[in-house]
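Please, structure for the following, as tokens.
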Amino acid sequence: MQLETFRGRDLPSVMRLVRAALGGDALILTTHALHEPEGRAFEVVAAKPEALEAFRRSLDGGLAAARRARTRSRVGPYTVALVGPSGAGKTTTAVKLALHPKGLGGRKIGFVTLDTYRVGALEELQTYAEITSVPMEVAYSEEDVGPALERLRDRDVVLVDTPSRLEAECDWLSILRRIDPDEVHLVMPAGLRHDVALRLRDRFGVAGVTHGLYTKVDDLEDDAGLAQTAEAVSLPVRWIADGHEVPGALAAALPRILGALGRRWSDADARRMAG
């Protein structure tokens, strides 16, 4: 989303600049009081309404493409894979998605894990699976994929947990390609620097990433940081995780991200401020 920054000595004059440049329905993202050597000033970051709509489409518009596999003669459960770096919270996010009503709760869920590398990884997901009565399969090789999915054929959705390690050619990548998931969500903390987030997006692109899924949102000062990260990464986003509680701390992404952007200011707002 293209943002424009306006500065002035008082807020009404800055708002007049915004209105002249972007129109009376401009979207105000942030307003800051600045303390400069010359004295106090104000800075307003704003965008055109159509920029907001384009941003909304970028967050939401990948869903049809991500369901590309459904256009083929494909049967069986819908599959959603979670990929991402160590510590991002893929396993707990998978459980949240399985149980939370704003995730996939209410559907018949199955787990498949490819994480046979990390010590304790199988036990962690197995414990969750037993507590929640969700069937779980382990795929050690490509040959395990067919039988595992066959045993989960009565499920509505299969969630695929993956390792964090990602060398040039990993065994789990070939297993994931054999699964051929409908969606692949890149799970990463929302507070990452944008350059780090972009490197992760490019690095895990070999896994066929279709969406972003941001965790640890509660570590941010406010949701504006979440919106900035989502814009920088430029992937559709369906869910965010904003805490450690299982199965809670999961939310639909679009209302939270768009709600963080600000508000539209009308001419009446500007006149009232000027008065």
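DSSP finds eleven helices and twelve strands in the chain. The radius of gyration is 22 Å.
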